[in-house]
Amino acid sequence: MEENILATARDIHGLYPHVHVWGFPIAAYLFLGGLAAGILLFATIYYLRGKAEDMPFTVKIAPIFTFIIIMIGLFLLVFDLHHKLYVWQLFLTFRIESPMSWGAWTLVGVSIFSLLWPLSYIDDIEAYLHERGWRRLDGITTFIRNLEHNWKIPRFIILTFRKYRTFFAYILLFLSVILGIYTGILLSAFNAHPLWNNPILGPLFLTSGVSTGSAFVMWLSNNHKERKLMSTIDMVLIAVELFFIIHMIMGMQAGPEVFKQAAHLFLGGEFTVIFWVIFVGMGLVLPFVLEVLELRGFKIHPAFPALLVLLGGLLFRIIMVQAGQISEYPF
Amino acid sequence: MRYGMAIEINKCVGCADCVVACQTENNVPIGYSRDWIIEKVKGQYPDVFLHFESQRCNHCDDTPCVRTCPTGASHVIEGGIVKVTQDECIGCGACIEACPYDARYFHPDGYVDKCTFCDHRVQDGLDPACVAVCPTTCMHFGDLDDPDSDISKLIRKRENFTLLPEAGTAPQIYYLK
User: Fold this and answer.
1) In chain B, which residue's Cα lies nearest the Cα of A185?
2) CA nearest A26 in B: which residue?
3) How far, in Å, CA of A47 to CA of A37, rounded?
4) What separation in angstroms does the CA of A304 have from each of A168, A288, A299, B154?
5) Alpha-carbon distance A275 to A296, whole Å?
6) Residue of B nearest to A16 (CA)
7) Where in the sequence is the domain holding B82, given as residue range(s)?
8) For residue B123, what are the contacts with CB-CB under 8 A and spacing of at least 6?
9) CA B142 to centroid of chain Cα atoms
10) Is the pLDDT of residue A137 over 80?
11) Whether A90 contacts chain B with CB within 8 A
12) CB contact, 8 Å: A1 with chain B?
């Protein structure tokens, strides 16, 4: 028998019985970051492949949501800081070893470009809004158009962006991949938490983020062809994600004791049911089956599998953030 | 210059003087502490062994807390002492997550706080508060780089261990058996 007892009072919130300084806001941010990365990835890839006219929603409309998504994510991030007034310190330095520093700078770039991208497609966005019957948002599109017509600097910025869109698309593609991967690498940089400390987490989070991105496009697109393509892509991504998850758990099972204990959280431990039944079952397998059925001609509303994938993605981040903090080295 | 600590576990009685001395010296908020005592019980009746360990930041050589800090608030000063600059800390919690020893915490004012090896005392040639008050003199502080320092001699002579070397942090607090 071996027992370690804390003999002196240490009434510190978030340290005992295990470190718990990150909660829902961080998990939600990781989800939103991945989602934004996924949407932007599709927008830029299909733009660069010259499919802007075939896939209008993916390329032109969807990126407007990424700006909103990133702003919500940023709000959650800053909201979760304990020393909020010093947040500007992030932008006085760049620390190459810290994934969080990478993320902070990437977010700046992604926010700027994800605002400019849809601004340069304002006519298409207005047409989409009219088709959906969301005329109340006309005020915003009119405002942007006035901005473009009457103000020199915004006009210059928007026109430049429109002119060199291909160049900016390459930058945005690069940034969105970094954003998607970094949400995973952020966690895997913590070797104090064996569950996070595995190299597959970066690709896994990227795949999951891109999968939620495709689900999002599938859900809100008004173009049948686009929906079908996104549904197919999402199925492939879900399959890859399942492969990564199994790979991650097998890797931990083959590792030292602390990694086995980390894997045990999902293999009989307290996260077993929520992970396998709710996340894998209802967030990956069920939408996969629904998408297969839909492609085979069954009438299934695309919002259904899309929402399952999105909720699954959020739940996955919540589970990883919570379970990761429980998995610790014993000392 | 490389500061470190050696703690003789068979002399420690777990009185927590080190904890209180640190709280007083560094004005640590009530309920908080930068060092703490772990009671380790091993074995089965009738062969039960117990010892106390006074734990704190290990001022590691390979510092995951400094590595993950996005602003550079966590940094290493001369002598290998790991410190946090309050005005640069945004309170993101990355270093708290990165530390396998639970040595860091959020100060009620928001920034991250931790053991400083009492660098303000060390600069004046004094021992850290915890070492200075230990009634059983089980703690030793000094320069690990100097082969003739008391602490280097102790570590050479006595069987010792560090906490979680497997976490890859190269901790600089040695526990002498």
Assistant:
1) B68
2) B92
3) 15
4) 34, 11, 11, 68
5) 29
6) B102
7) 3-176
8) none
9) 13
10) no
11) yes
12) yes
Nearest CA among A107, A213, A123, A220 for reference residue A162? A123
Give residues with Cβ within 8 angstroms of A146, minimum separation 6: none
Whether A37 is in a domain gets the answer: yes
B137-165 pLDDT, tens digit per residue, is: 999 999 999 999 999 999 999 999 999 99
Identity at B160, one-letter amino acid code = N
Sign of the dihedral defined by the CA atoms of residues B22, B26, B27, B28, in that order: negative
Q: Report chain A residues whose CB lies below 8 A from the CB of B97.
A: 19, 21-22, 190, 192-193, 325
| Cα dihedral B103, B109, B111, B114 sign | negative
The three-state secondary structure class of B4 is: strand
Closest partner residue to A95 (CB to CB) among B41, B69, B87 is: B69
A7 vs B: CB within 8 A: yes
Domains identified in chain A, total number: 1
A101 and chain B: CB distance < 8 Å anywhere?
Answer: yes
Phi and psi at B83, nearest 5°, equal: -130, 165
Within a domain: A3: no
DSSP A5-58: EE-S----TTTSSS-----HHHHHHHHHHHHHHHHHHHHHHHHHTT-TTTSHII
The domain in which residue A225 lies consists of: 24-326
Whole-number percent of chain B with pLDDT over 90:
97
Residue A331 is assigned to a structural domain of this protein: no
Contact at CB, B68 and A97, closer than 8 angstroms: yes
Spatial separation of the C-alpha atoms in residues A184 and A324, rounded to whole Å: 12
What's the CATH number where A66 sits?
Answer: 1.20.1630.10
Q: What is the pLDDT of residue B103?
A: 94
What ipTM did this prediction achieve?
0.90
Q: Do the domain assignments include residue A92?
A: yes
Report the number of distinct structural domains present in chain B. Answer: 1
Per-residue pLDDT of chain B (177 residues; tens, 9 = 90+): 999 999 999 999 999 999 999 999 999 999 999 999 999 999 999 999 999 999 999 999 999 999 999 999 999 999 999 999 999 999 999 999 999 999 999 999 999 999 999 999 999 999 999 999 999 999 999 999 999 999 999 999 999 999 999 998 999 999 998
Q: Cα-flanking dihedrals φ and ψ of residue A306, to 5°?
A: -65, -45
- Partner residue opposite B110 with nearest CB, options A8, A83, A93: A83
pLDDT band at residue A40 using 50, 70 and 90 as cut-offs:
very high
**B contact test, residue of A6, A11, A12, A326 with most B CBs within 10 A:** A12
Contact assessment for residue B80 and residue B3, using Cβ atoms and an 8 Å cutoff: yes
Chain centroid to CA B161: 14
